[in-house]
TrEMBL record:
Pfam family, one: GSH-S_ATP
Organism expressing this protein natively: Woeseia oceani
Molecular function terms, GO-annotated: ATP binding; glutathione synthase activity
Classification via SUPFAM superfamilies: Glutathione synthetase ATP-binding domain-like (SSF56059)
Protein name per the record: Prokaryotic glutathione synthetase ATP-binding domain-containing protein
Chain ranges of the Prokaryotic glutathione synthetase ATP-binding domain: 134-240
């Protein structure tokens, strides 16, 4: 806590945010109204005063896949300082690699069928379409953000793309999935949970001839009301996550049989799209305030 009695909070971000769509700063004003002083800091900051902050929101460190171990070490230093880290380090560590999806699948969550590969070789690549029973497949890193190094592949792969794939994943774990057609026709649904409750939802629709649902890649972002089946699916998923996170984003796509399949559960640094709902920034501020206070009292 600062000398003037106000509480201090850090929002982690990147050294360079140019070209990124960030609206986490919308939560700053409502936090200030509750007596918080907010500082936006790069996660790579070599600081030794994390204990001077009452709470740290992981925020928008979207370049962490470039150096995930250094990122994890930074989070460990923050938590070791005694400040309240949101989300808890145990969840962040579990969520760092997309293999958490395999864990959730073992607990009954429906995900897109996935092949997990420690490395990608020519024989493995040649057999993936048949193994996944799909004419189009997606290959992406196990640790990644913003569709970086994500490939949509027809059965016929050009020599140039084949060489890039084998080089990219020669020593980098990856995952392969059948391409779900609804991504291009309907888009991907994202449901946002703040303080354990569903706050708002959006539908992300790729631009024509693309499959990436991030707005940095030209996708359209639409506020939506959540249909009951999707709400139930997401609520059941969130009941499995312990301890309860301050924030979460659950991404779903509609399968051919009508079920909603989990694409990702983002607990580290999801864009919360606070701008899409007027009440969302205040909702986050209230939840953050309660979250830090409840954990500071333990």
């Amino acid at each position: 806590m600062s000398t003037d009695g106000s509480r201090r909070c850090a929002f982690l971000t990147m050294d360079n945010t140019e070209g990124w769509s960030i609206d986490a700063d919308l939560a700053i004003a409502p936090l200030q109204a509750k007596g918080w002083r907010v500082e936006v800091l790069p996660w790579r900051s070599e600081r030794d005063d994390w204990a001077s902050f009452d709470g740290v929101y992981v925020g928008t460190p979207w370049d962490y896949p470039d150096d995930p171990q250094t990122f994890l070490q930074a989070l460990q230093r923050i938590e070791a300082s005694g400040t309240v880290l949101a989300n808890p380090l145990s969840l962040l560590r579990w969520n760092l690699a997309k293999t958490y999806l395999r864990d959730l699948e073992s607990r009954g969550v429906a995900i897109v069928p996935t092949e997990w590969l420690d490395t990608l070789t020519e024989p493995l690549l040649n057999g993936l379409h048949d193994k996944l029973d799909s004419e189009r497949i997606v290959i992406k890193p196990v640790i990644s953000t913003n569709a970086s190094n994500t490939f949509l592949l027809e059965r016929e792969i050009s020599p140039e793309i084949r060489a890039i794939l084998l080089d990219t994943f020669a020593a980098r774990p990856c995952m392969a999935q059948p391409f779900v057609a609804a991504i291009q026709s309907e888009g991907e649904y994202s449901l946002f949970y703040i303080g354990g409750e569903m706050s708002h939802a959006i539908r992300k629709v790729p631009k024509p001839a693309d499959f990436r649902v991030q707005e940095e890649h030209g996708a359209r972002i639409l506020a939506v009301d959540v249909e009951p089946a999707l709400q139930q699916t997401a609520d059941q998923l969130m009941q499995l996550i312990k301890p309860m996170p301050l924030y979460a984003r659950a991404d779903f796509v509609r399968a051919a049989d009508g079920r909603f399949l989990l694409m990702e559960l983002e607990l580290i640094e999801p864009s919360l799209y606070l701008r899409m709902v007027d009440a969302a920034p205040e909702r986050f501020a209230v939840a953050f305030d309660h979250y830090v206070q409840s954990r500071s009292e333990k």
